[in-house]
């Protein structure tokens, strides 16, 4: 077995540098405004080559989840989860749900990104956004 | 627009495969019976014998993605006038296209894979296919690896939205074990129940061990010939009545077409094309062969191709049935889950054998049309085999 590795193309490097700084940045198209993931040379929506790196809010909604019961990497001993989330900005991103998982279905649960050291690199994870008693009024 | 140009242009005239059961026993005992080229050569010779033709009749060659085109041609001593590399389903379609255009008349399709004895990994570091499919490797930092996990993520969402239960998904593994229990070529012949399925361990939850395909060595070959040439060969030709393909690659790495669409819109476009070209309806289909790297391909295909209404496939599988015992039999050889993992190639020869009536104990009665479907990595592909 081995440690999990990042895919690090020319366009991935700025994204991972932003994760190291503790705030995910993605390319936003300068012509149509769409965010894209994974990073790449052109905007799949309008084919523009012009983009700028913008920090995302880190707020997202869970689309689906899995729980691994088999170990594939030294740095991810089973059991562990992975979730696919829809960022507020549009793209779908796969990450890890940290903390206590929800009871029942995870789909539709709102999460917020956090950043932790993992296998010597910074990595994003997500935590459930608990709407506590004080925030309940504001959220409603 | 429905294209009909490839309707009954070509037929399968010969099929062959290696001794999956015997080779698997040898590999598990630590031997290496062949490499990928050797398995391909054994299957090729069997397909030639089945068609009753000589190697000199072959003027086109397609090799599977696990071997190099030039080297296969060299090993088999073939100098053809047309050829290339393709997976099983696209190989059959490309052979039809080559025959229609006059580039070849008798095309050999040859596949060999020593994935078990070569210890190929489909998950973890160096996951197979990562060079071609970024989704297979891109999410590894979060431990999200293996094609099974991609389907688990997709199917979890489908289950939550549709209400399909794990027990209903278990109908697939149970039906395919019933089929393989009647198939002497199958690796897994012990029948299982839904209870066995539910008590089997999860690999990537919600998928259980029995939802995953086997990993074994072997080879498969087909001879696809221009229809009039095929009629002069030994076996009654199995005509290719329709072919179709529709891709969904936008958002592939971020899993968008899987999670948002379940590949359904591509399947619906492919269904319109393949049924239109064949001139038939789902009701005319005697058996369905579905690429089953994981069992969840089956319910998604049954809905996507219109065999039941969207959202009803759980009940369809449980009440109407998808096995040789009742209903619409799927993967009558046992498929990838229980016969052999030949990456879609064994499904093609099972379709041919069912139409020929060579299914033995697993024969579908009065088998007229067999629909093959796959939805692997964004490509919905369909082939309609018939008399
Ligand atoms: Zn754009």
Please name the defining characteristics of this protein.
heterodimer, A: 140 residues, mainly beta, OB fold (Dihydrolipoamide Acetyltransferase, E2P), 5-stranded antiparallel β-sheet, 2 helices, disordered C terminus, B: alpha/beta, Peroxisomal Thiolase, Chain A, domain 1, two-stranded antiparallel ribbon, 11 strands, 37% helix, binds zinc ion
Total domains of chain B:
1
Low-confidence stretches of chain B: none
- Termini gap of chain B: 25 Å
Q: Classify the helix fraction of chain B into a percent range.
A: 25-40%
- Over all CA atoms, what is the radius of gyration of chain A? 16 Å
Mean pLDDT over the full residue set of chain B: 96
Residues in β-strands, percent of chain B: 15-25%
What would your notes on this structure say?
The complex is a heterodimer of chains A (140) and B (387). Chain A has helices spanning 12-20, 133-139; strands at residues 25-29, 35-36, 51-55, 59-68, 80-87, 92-95, 110-118, 121-128. Chain A is mostly beta strands and 140 residues long. Chain A has a single domain (12-139), classed as OB fold (Dihydrolipoamide Acetyltransferase, E2P) (Beta Barrel). Chain A has a 5-stranded antiparallel sheet, with helices on one face. In chain A, strands 2-1-3 form a 3-stranded antiparallel sheet. In chain A, a hairpin with a 2-residue loop joins strand 7 (110-118) and strand 8. The longest helix of chain A has 9 residues, at 12-20. The radius of gyration of chain A is 16 Å and the shape is globular. With 387 residues, chain B is an alpha/beta fold. Chain B has one domain: Peroxisomal Thiolase, Chain A, domain 1 (3-Layer(aba) Sandwich), CATH 3.40.47. Helix content of chain B is 37%, strand content 18%. Chain B has 15 helices and 11 strands. The radius of gyration of chain B is 19 Å and the shape is globular. The two termini of chain B are 25 Å apart. The A-B interface holds A 1-7, 37-38, 44, 63-70, 72-73, 75-76, 80, 82, 84, 91-96, 105, 107, 118, 121, 123 and B 123-126, 134, 137-146, 149, 152-154, 156-157, 160-161, 201-206, 250-251, 253-256, 259. The structure holds zinc ion (ZN).
